[in-house]
Amino acid sequence: MRLSLLALSFFASTVAAESITVYKSPTCGCCTEWIKIMESKGHDVKVEHPFNLQESKSQLGIPKQLASCHTAVIGDYLFEGHIPEQDILSFLADPPVGAKGLAVPGMPQMSPGMASPGQRYSGFRVIGFNADNQYWLANQY
Ligand SMILES: [Cu+2]
Description:
By secondary structure, this protein is of the alpha/beta class.
């Protein structure tokens, strides 16, 4: 019984695991906290410290108004800032047509990587965006 449960949870985490590249500044601690959360959920995170982070954001295609401290790239999609893992997984499970990714602009205090462990996420929005600079509300905490 114990073994099969373990096998099941291993299988579940294997299925959901994403290969993520995160672009961040070497000195930003909240990005590292967000990365730790993603790793604790089984994702494989590779970290890059570009010389000019703002330039790399615009090269990747992050709209200026949606910018946060770190940019995560998963496949063809961009995930800007302190987005809860659950929102990333639901997006990837069924990406809206034409969507480029999701963003939590700025660094909201009660978001993953900013809030203390165990605190409830609140007071921020998860915004979807596309290449035409159109935004929509994907989720709200
Ligand atoms: Cu940060």
